[in-house]
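#structure-requests
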Amino acid sequence: MTVERSGPVGTRGDFGELRGGNLGVRIATTPAEIDAAQALRYRVFYDERGALPDATAAASHRDSDDFDAVADHLLVVDHEIGPGPEGVVATYRLIRAQAAGKLGRFYSAEEYDISAVVNFPGQVMELGRSCVHPDYRGRAAMQLLWRGIAAYVFLHRIDLMFGCASLPGTDPDAVAAELTYLHAYHLAPPEVRPRALPHRYVDMRRLDPATLDPRRVLARLPPLVKGYLRLGGFVGDGAVIDAQFNTIDVAVVVKTDLVAKKYSRHYERQSRDTGE
């Protein structure tokens, strides 16, 4: 996929827009674009995946919370549909420490003790609310989302990113192999390891790891989880059942060295090509 940088750099310090054919990835710049992201999240999380809306969500058909007001919202836009909110086909919510400070917490703290992450000596960022329209779940949209994250990490000098990734359903034994595999092969080192809050802790070690076929289990993991692992990501200790969203969550932590280096090489090549 050929990716080009286009458009002005935004006033919030974003990276402009990266293009791949008719798709572009950038940070939302208007309330209407954030509203479009929230509407897409509702369609995916509630209409498609069976999350249980509260009265506000059911009336508005929007997935929203307090964190949306302080976050940056990464969007993939299909320019064949339109360059603004009408074209939003994928989204990711990015919350830097400075933004979380306005609310006094990160979203993940509702499920995990993230003190090791928050105390990490560097810039940290929380990832969440990732979703892609069903018609765009091929490689192009996901690649652009990851390129957008890499650009954001590079621009804001993020050292560590973290968040919650989800497995489907609320029965841990239905994904016993996946949880056991993640704990056995990808447990975060202690200095950056989140741990599920005691009253929500679900043991991930549900099978004997020696009985697993690691390659087969890895292939069954959701694409988002596999994406984190490809970047050298780790998981925290303990899963959490999110009954509202009909998921089993695992905490994910990624040191961004690989992400930043990859985008840095891409940006340097692009700068040489464009004479910037």
